[in-house]
Amino acid sequence: MDHVRGLKCVLCGDEYSVGEVLYVCPKHGDEGILDVLYDYDLIATRLTKEGLAHNHDYSIWRYAPLLPIREETPRPPLHVGWTPVYQSQRLGEKLGLAHLYIKDDGRNPTASFKDRASAVGVVKAQELGYEIITCASTGNAASSLAGFAASVGLRSVIFVPERAPQAKVAQLLIFGARVIMVKGTYDQAFDLCLEAAKEYGWYSRNTAYNPYLSEGKKTASLEICEQLEWQAPDRIFVSVGDGCIMGGLWKGLRDLLALDFIERMPQLIGVQAEGSAPLVRAWEEGTEEIVPLIPETLADSIAVGKPRDRVKALRAVRETGGQYVAVTDEEILEAMRLLGREAAVFAEPAGAAGFAGLLKLAQQGQIDPDERIAVLVTGSGLKDVDSAIRAVGKPDLIEPTISALRRLM
Ligand SMILES: *Cc1c(COP(=O)(O)O)cnc(C)c1O
User: Fold this and answer.
1) How many domains does the chain have?
2) Which of 302, 304, 377 is the best mutation target for the ligand 1 pocket, counting ligand atoms within 8 Å of the beta carbon and taking the most?
3) What is the mean pLDDT of residues 261-287?
4) Which end of the chain is more exposed for a tag (fewer CB within 10 A), N or C?
């Protein structure tokens, strides 16, 4: 790991060596999230555009020189990353946009963006010699961790809020996780999980706590830019709960700028559900302080009342000249329908929220028709079929006769 210079607290800026701290800044406790610092001069000798053009490993590991892992640690066998980017002509026309790109991260092995972080999480757990890894999650981080733990033979203990959708809980159980369902919100499950990890000595996969997971998330930015032949998009839209994806995307883009792989920083647009939008409020008020709330939205994966990665998530948007947008549950359902019907991408509500934000800004005339827009779809619709049915309604049911069909038609 000679390419990692250390870890830097996002609050006080103090730096630590990798061996010095495991998770957060000792001075700031759970709030003092650490950012991984790299030696870009060294990395530039190991990672080049030409090298990538000849690299046939189409997964996040093609960017290993930019990840905080040792070269010799085995990587999980599940295929993660290099998800498709579709240029969505029909969807673009509907919105009046000439260059619309949809990156479908529902195509990851456990069907969400979280696999990018879990993959790095289990590599770190193995490097550090842990046998049990834990996280709290509204569902996707949990099922993702359970899958990746199973793939390398680690045990996982997962804390989920009572209202996590059934498909996600089923995934956990299939992957053999020890599932602990908490009578409370995600935020309460998160706090309990941190306490449990300390008490039992388990490795914590919680993003916005474990500094390495964000590094897995940043691979989506690296991929978007490489898949668009190093012409960075003008704006990237993504849904935001804790803000770790947002922080990760920003990190990946800063890496690419530091390596001169792209020429300018895209604007990052964070989309939250109206009933769970503390970052939208903080952004509008120009503060980094959050007023925690009880989230109310059908988009369970972004139902977060106290965003853990708020500092990075707010800076990512401010420093790239982007913005935060709130969308209603109705707008999310409409985004699910449009994505399905015009682009054949099936998203869960949180997965479609980024697109709902684009839809909103486009309808308000805030997007130039020639802008190059990338939208991340962060999770598959199969994870939450109840919401999908809510978006589209139930099918017609008839007797198996042609006369019944005629009456219906
Ligand atoms: C976790 C998740 C998000 C939000 O990511 P954060 O890092 O919490 O902001 C968005 N969509 C889906 C499908 C997710 O699972």
Assistant:
1) 1
2) 302
3) 97
4) C
Residue 22 domain-assigned?
no
**Tens-place pLDDT, residues 44-103:** 999 999 999 999 999 999 999 999 999 999 999 999 999 999 999 999 999 999 999 999
151/399 Cα distance (integer angstroms): 46
Residue 105 CA, closest ligand 1 atom number: 13
Ligand 1 contact via 326 beta carbon (within 6 Å): no
Q: Residue for token digits 């449990």?
A: 196
Which of 277, 243, 224, 235 shows the shortest CA–CA distance to 362?
Answer: 235
CATH (domain of 241): 3.40.50.1100
Which is it for strands 203-204 and 178-182: parallel, antiparallel or unpaired? unpaired
C-alpha 114 – ligand 1 centre gap (Å): 7
For range 219-229, the mean pLDDT: 98
Answer yes or no: is the C-beta of 241 below 6 A from any ligand 1 atom. Answer: yes
Instruction: Kindly tell me the number of DSSP H helices and DSSP E strands found in the chain.
Output: 16, 13
Residue 188 forms part of a structural domain: no
Give the number of other CB atoms < 10 A from CB of residue 19.
Answer: 8
Give the sheet arrangement for strand 323-327, strand by strand.
85-87, 99-104, 372-377, 235-239, 267-273, 323-327
Q: With a cut of 90, say whether residue 31 has pLDDT above it.
A: no
Identify whether 11 is part of a domain: no
Report CA(106)–ligand 1 centroid distance (Å): 12
Atom of ligand 1 nearest to the CA of 348: 13
Collapsed DSSP state (helix, strand, coil) of residue 304: coil
